[in-house]
Amino acid sequence: MRRTMPPMFRALRQQNYRRWAAADLVSVTGSWMQVIGVNWVVLERTGSVTSVGLSVLLSTLPAVLLGPWAGALADRFPVRRIVLVCQALHAVMAGMLAMAVWSGLPMAAIYALTFAAGLISVFDGPAFGRLSSQIVPRDSLANAVALGSVINSVGRIVGMSMAGVLTALVGAPVLFALNSLSFVAVITAVLTIRREELHPLARSAPSRAGVGDGLRYVGTSGRLLLLVTLGFVLSCLGRNYQVTMAAMSTDAAMYGVLSSVFAVGTVLGGLFAAARRTLSVRLLLVAAALASLLQVIGGLVPGPVAFAAVLVPIAAAAVLIDTTMSTRLQLDSEDGMRGRMLAIGGSAGAAAGAIGAPLLGWLCERLGAGTTLVLAGTITLLTTLSAAALFGASPQRRTALAHRVLRRQRGVAHPAGHPLQPASLTRPRRSRQSLANGRPAVRPQRGHRS
Fold first, then answer.
1. Domain limits of the chain?
2. Where is 389: in which H helix or E strand?
3. 3-class SS at 283?
4. Which CATH number fits domain 7-408: 1.20.1250.20, 2.30.30.100, 3.40.50.2300, 3.40.50.20?
């Protein structure tokens, strides 16, 4: 296996990672089945794209409020136990969602379960990502993150395809029940992993294990602070395709087609990332600019079929952004801070989803989906160009300007309720995003991925 494995798949030379990846594929497939089920249950019952955005808001709100504490726990306590507990709770929540939809409970119950699943994901994300990064050596982390994106994309394609068939044959509750069972695969992988082959990370010293210490660490690093700020804007206006794809769809079948096309693009983007030896900030900026331009074009092309063609390179760029962002946040920070860095990246994404999804849904209903895509793409392009200029500036200049931008977005970029001080910043989520962020943002949160 070691001799025949191509460099693109070098992380698979590790037996622990092969076991981890197989379990992840099963879990991701179930999770994307649930995403399709929840989105269409909400849309079918309410007939409102804004309601779909509200569902996203509820699933991400816990990360906005509690993300910093979850990251601090992951840096200080054994992450294996945290992951096992969270995976078990996710399985229970998915089963309860199946019962709620099957018995016809009101939308309030669906929203409550969505919020609860998001609450579990807050603590699952940083711990899952930190455990994932111990499965491979440091020089294989970028490749593992990229392969995690590919796994997520393949699981997305399979999960969405199965969801379309099963929803028509047996109904949405079955999707949630199957997702509940899929978490067993991850639990089994965690229990059977070879601990002697892990690559331990240093834990945070008690004197630096607090939430404030993590915020100060990011706040005093102009590079990390700028990465988080850019990630927030891109996620808010350029990444909520669950909402915009629903708005561009003429019916459920077209929504399924657009979702599958997007997933194909993410596979291509993940393979491109896996083939690269390094994932640099320059690559991140190029991918962000490309995705923004294509988003503008997507808003101008006529009809959903032409939009589907533009979605392929958009999705590829999106995965490249996620993979590079997650890799840089982990490798450019201390081992003892990695859980908090993953949480900061996750909380920024959660805050962006909480704000961007309802906002984009509202704009789509009033301005039209095409106009909304043009407007949002223009803003993200200008932000990316500004970030490129800042990365070329001195470290002190980067820190000062990034702080200035974040002050203007107070309560947006600092959702956790921590005002930005001269040396602090707030934090983000995971979507237990795979090995990225633990996993890329393209991937939905554990339990309810939206």
1. 7-408
2. helix 369-391
3. helix
4. 1.20.1250.20
Measured at the alpha carbon of residue 147, what is the angle toward residues 143 and 153, in degrees to the nearest 5?
Answer: 150
- Angular region, 334: left φ>0, alpha ψ -120 to 50, beta rest: beta
User: Per-residue pLDDT for 410 more than 70?
Assistant: no
Flag whether the pTM goes above 0.90: no
Q: How confident is the model at residue 426 (pLDDT cuts 50, 70, 90)?
A: very low
Among residues 235, 102, 279, 86, which one has the least CA distance to residue 175?
Answer: 102
CA dihedral 396, 402, 403, 408 (to 10 degrees): 150
Each residue's pLDDT tens digit, 276-319 = 888 889 999 999 999 999 999 999 998 888 999 999 999 999 98
- Burial code of 355-384, b = ≥16 C-beta within 10 A, e = fewer? bbbbbbbebbeeeebbebbbbbbbbbbebb
pLDDT value, residue 239: 74
- How far is it, in rounded angstroms, from Cα 133 to Cα 198? 9
On the question of pLDDT at 152 being above 80, the answer is yes
Burial class (CB in 10 A: 0-12, 13-18, 19+), 108: exposed
Most confident residue range from 27-36, 298-307, 373-382: 373-382
Cβ neighbourhood burial of 200 (10 Å; 0-12, 13-18, 19+): exposed
Using a 10 angstrom Cβ sphere, with 0-12 exposed, 13-18 middle and 19 or more buried, the burial of residue 112 is middle
Question: Exposed, middle or buried, 433 (CB in 10 Å: 0-12/13-18/19+)?
Answer: buried
Considering only residues 63 and 345, tell me which one the structure prediction assigns the higher pLDDT: 345
Say what the pLDDT of residue 376 is.
93
| Token duo for residue 283 | 């690559």
3 state DSSP class of 333: coil
